């Protein structure tokens, strides 16, 4: 039985050329009205500058210099990146920082706001519990929520410190990808070796 090839519609600048409304002009008018009312979202400003070719660095030259990411920012970003794409985990981290400007606010919040903030990254309940537990543990042991002291430790000491946190395993500690082989290909490899 042969299949008929699907006919591709002719290219069009409009996403839905068969629909009379909304037109591209109407979409742009709504976008402009929303931007005028709400302003441009700050978390997207670096991407906009890069897309427009205005700036090749993520630092905002018009405003105050951006602060470099902290060790804790990197660790939370890594936790959020588990079981999702980099783009989605960046979006989850931006939503988290927008909802909670300080880490103390994350620890002190008792409701579901943290889960709601990172929901776009998937596994929100698990990740929220791990982030909150990690931040509480740091605050209890160190007196404040900061991991910058890790920069002064040896690699083995850093691994020991990070392994205390649930959800931070050898792959996260090493920041190196581990190759996981699914069971079926593994069984084929074992069978081939026995020949």
TrEMBL record:
<dbReference type="InterPro" id="IPR011257">
    <property type="entry name" value="DNA_glycosylase"/>
</dbReference>
<feature type="compositionally biased region" description="Pro residues">
    <location>
        <begin position="10"/>
        <end position="23"/>
    </location>
</feature>
<dbReference type="GO" id="GO:0006284">
    <property type="term" value="P:base-excision repair"/>
</dbReference>
<protein>
    <recommendedName>
        <fullName>HhH-GPD domain-containing protein</fullName>
    </recommendedName>
</protein>
<dbReference type="GO" id="GO:0003824">
    <property type="term" value="F:catalytic activity"/>
</dbReference>
<feature type="region of interest" description="Disordered">
    <location>
        <begin position="1"/>
        <end position="25"/>
    </location>
</feature>
<feature type="domain" description="HhH-GPD">
    <location>
        <begin position="76"/>
        <end position="138"/>
    </location>
</feature>
<dbReference type="InterPro" id="IPR003265">
    <property type="entry name" value="HhH-GPD_domain"/>
</dbReference>
<dbReference type="Pfam" id="PF00730">
    <property type="entry name" value="HhH-GPD"/>
</dbReference>
């Amino acid at each position: 039985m042969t299949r008929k090839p699907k006919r591709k519609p002719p290219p069009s600048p409009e996403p839905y050329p068969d629909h009379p409304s909304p037109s591209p002009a109407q979409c742009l008018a709504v976008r402009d009205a929303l931007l005028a009312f709400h302003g441009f979202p700050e978390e997207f400003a670096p991407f906009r500058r890069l897309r427009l070719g205005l700036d090749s660095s993520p630092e905002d030259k018009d405003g105050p210099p951006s602060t470099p990411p902290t060790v804790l920012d990197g660790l939370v970003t890594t936790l959020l990146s588990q079981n999702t794409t980099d783009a989605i985990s960046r979006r989850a981290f931006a939503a988290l920082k927008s909802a909670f400007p300080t880490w103390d606010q994350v620890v002190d919040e008792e409701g579901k706001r943290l889960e709601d903030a990172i929901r776009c990254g998937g596994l929100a309940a698990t990740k929220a519990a791990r982030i909150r537990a990690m931040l509480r543990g740091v605050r209890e042991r160190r007196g404040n929520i900061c991991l910058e002291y890790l920069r002064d430790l040896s690699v083995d000491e850093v691994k020991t410190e990070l392994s205390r946190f649930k959800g931070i395993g050898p792959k996260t500690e090493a920041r190196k990808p581990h190759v996981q082989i699914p069971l079926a290909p593994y069984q084929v490899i074992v069978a081939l070796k026995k020949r």
